[in-house]
Automatic annotation (TrEMBL), chains A, B:
Signal peptide: none annotated. Its EC number is 2.7.6.2. Residues 141-205 form the Thiamin pyrophosphokinase thiamin-binding domain. The keyword Nucleotidyltransferase does not apply. This is Thiamine diphosphokinase. Pfam families: TPK_B1_binding (PF04265), TPK_catalytic (PF04263). InterPro entries: Thi_PPkinase, Thiamin_PyroPKinase_B1-bd, TPK, TPK_catalytic, TPK_catalytic_sf. Keywords: ATP-binding, Kinase, Nucleotide-binding, Transferase. One of its GO terms (molecular function) is thiamine diphosphokinase activity. PANTHER family: THIAMINE PYROPHOSPHOKINASE. GO terms for biological process: thiamine diphosphate biosynthetic process; thiamine metabolic process.
Length: 212, 212
């Protein structure tokens, strides 16, 4: 099952091809953007502070369901949406858009959701997409990944320290590198259609990207 | 002394008022953007892979000095620029623009430069700016910060785990909170023109932001 979570970032940041999902969740203003894009809105989640009263009424009327959270809460609207998704559809693939660009505090909160223990086991099922970037997350292990056709660059982003990271079959390689603080190894490139990596602990993000 | 470091992000992301710096460093394509904005270009740094040959020649002809790095190197162009700046002007304030938006791998590499031991002692002198966000960095201690007139939101971003973080005089407060993984406490707000915080270890970023 493929589930789409749509944050409040501008639809200009959205990737192409958003029609083949099984369940659409709008996060606050993302709900309105889904309606405006004539896409389904299965669930609207948020405190809806970012909408006018008439916009909120429109979202509630058009969405198949909604969860309204209090404005003053510990979780962000996006955290609430991911929490709902993992509780109701624990086997789904969670594709998240509208979470990048704009406010950097929001983006970092969204990126770092995967570090929270409650989301840890869902990490392999989460990805963040926008026009220029795809971000997939990995738990310790050995992986072969595939080049996305539209992307040029490959980056290995250590969200945590790691005892050992090895990169193979790419322009720049590493052999059992110890990572002592978060670091983004940017501007790597595929040499063929696949690349491999192995790491022992922590959480790794892999970003495939292209120039604007 | 105020030094401006200009990365290759679109000039559309630049904040206003860029005329009152003492020294202007262009990073790769950022050098060309400085010339196009009719701002000074005291130093151009990079491998200049992002420029055509004629653009590169124009940058070299118009810049007061340049440092051309090999394309295959361990540091990013931005790291080289900050390294040069800290070596030649160790007392300066380093304002960095053109580092946000676009490629997320680049942004994270730029954000996390402050975690590198070679830059640690310069952390209080570094800030990242764009149209919507200001990011300042802090070493352990007790601080009073001031609200920026154009900004609405306040976020405390723990780039590292911390033994203890306390937030005072803001909409949401914390009392000696232990931080076990990086987290962005987004959407806080000033109650007056100042806010205070205290932390014991690690590195904290404070982001003031506004909606687009």
């Amino acid at each position: 099952m493929k589930l789409l979570i749509v944050g409040g970032g501008s639809p200009k940041t959205w990737p192409d091809k958003l029609t083949d999902f099984d369940f659409y969740i709008g996060v606050d203003r993302g709900s309105l953007y889904l309606l405006e894009a004539q896409l389904p809105l299965d669930l609207a989640v948020g405190d809806f502070d970012s909408l006018t009263e008439s916009e909120r009424q429109r979202v509630f009327a058009k969405s198949r369901a909604h969860v309204q959270a209090p404005a003053e809460k510990d979780d962000t609207d996006t955290q609430l949406a991911l929490l709902w998704a993992t509780q109701h559809y624990p086997e789904a693939q969670y594709t998240c858009i509208g979470l990048t660009g704009g406010r950097i505090d929001h983006f970092l909160a969204n990126l770092w959701m995967v570090l929270e223990p409650r989301f840890a086991k869902f990490i392999p099922q989460i990805c963040l997409l926008d026009q220029q970037n795809s971000i997939h997350f990995y738990l310790p292990g050995e992986y072969t990944i595939y080049r996305e056709k539209s992307k040029k660059y490959l980056a290995y982003v250590c969200l945590t320290p790691m005892q050992s990271l090895s990169l193979y079959d790419s322009k720049y390689t590493l052999d059992q590198q110890r990572i002592t603080y978060p670091i983004a190894y940017a501007s790597n490139e595929f040499l063929t259609n696949t690349a491999r990596f192995v790491f022992s602990d922590g959480i790794l993000a892999v970003i495939q990207s292209k120039d604007a």
